[in-house]
Amino acid sequence: MSQRYRIQFPPSDSEKLRQDEVFFTLVEDGTPQRLRFHDYDEIYKRPGLYEQLFYDRLRCNSPEKVADLLQRALQTVREPITELRVIDLGAGNGMMGEVLKREGVARLVGADIIPEARDAAYRDRSTVYDDYYVADFTDLASDVIEELKEWRLDCLTCVAALGFGDIPPKAFFRALKLLRTDGWLAFNIKESFLDHTEQTGFSRLVRELIFSKYLDVYHLELYRHRLSMEGTQLFYYALVGRLTSSIPDAFLEQHGIED
């Protein structure tokens, strides 16, 4: 049985914080420690804490939702998920990877920027990933790029990792460039990031991709990502699409998207 932690949420009338600023208090051996939801390095060090916080308390269901839409898109074109060679970007401790593995994907490669994520994935889900890269995708070494190309990747998944500075637009774009020309893309993003008034680099990148000639969108669905600490519903979009041609290196610059 996994360890259970004492988690305390702040009062509901506490000051309004952005989603990437939200914090909780973890009490260990009687000592309270304040952690942000995005303090992944500290969260991943504690077996089961991520799951208890986001999946038990806050009812996150994004891995299941994104994987389901990907499976439905594949069924539309009558291609088996068992032939997919997936890179799971922002893989964390392997929640999305576990769902993909259960669906029977052929190859599954994890990637994250912090070593604590890989350590947690190997600790908690040792049989999920065929390999796991700790790397900054905005500045990949040439030997790492060649090694990743050897996997002949044809699907990129990215769940609960976009839009708050966790993965910069350039990193996401570079991961996309690793896919074969007709590769699949499956990810989720906060509801507001598709609003035309949202002008962050990632918001513009997603909108430009959706309306570009380089991507056919199969599913774009608004759904409940998880609950907030106050119990309100947080909505995200889940998107599954397929590349139609190679995206030029200048795509980010052409659309004024900062790295």
Structural overview:
The chain has 259 residues and is α/β, with parallel strands linked by helices. The chain folds into 2 domains: 6-57, no CATH class; 62-254, Rossmann fold, CATH 3.40.50. The protein contains 9 helices and 10 strands. It has helices spanning 40-44, 49-57, 62-76, 95-103, 115-124, 142-149, 169-176, 201-210, 251-254; strands spanning 6-8, 23-28, 31-36, 85-89, 107-112, 131-134, 155-158, 184-190, 215-227, 233-243. The strands form 2 sheets. It has a 7-stranded mixed beta sheet with strand order 6-5-4-7-8-10-9, with helices on both faces. Strands 1-2-3 form a 3-stranded antiparallel beta sheet. The mean pLDDT is 91.
Strand content: 25-35%
Shape: globular
How many β-strand stretches? 10
Distance between the termini: 43 Å
SSE succession: EEEHHHEHEHEHEHEHEEH
What is the correct CATH architecture of the largest domain? 3-Layer(aba) Sandwich
Mean pLDDT: 91
Please describe the biggest sheet, giving its number of strands, its sense, and whether it closes into a barrel.
Answer: 7 strands, mixed
Tally of individual helices? 9
The CATH class of the largest domain turns out to be: Alpha Beta
Give the strand line-up of the largest sheet: 6-5-4-7-8-10-9
> Helix amount, in percent?
25-40%
* Rg over CA atoms: 18 Å
CATH topology of the largest domain: Rossmann fold
CATH homologous superfamily descriptor of the largest domain: Vaccinia Virus protein VP39
Poorly predicted tracts of residues: none
Structural class: alpha/beta
Tally of domains: 2
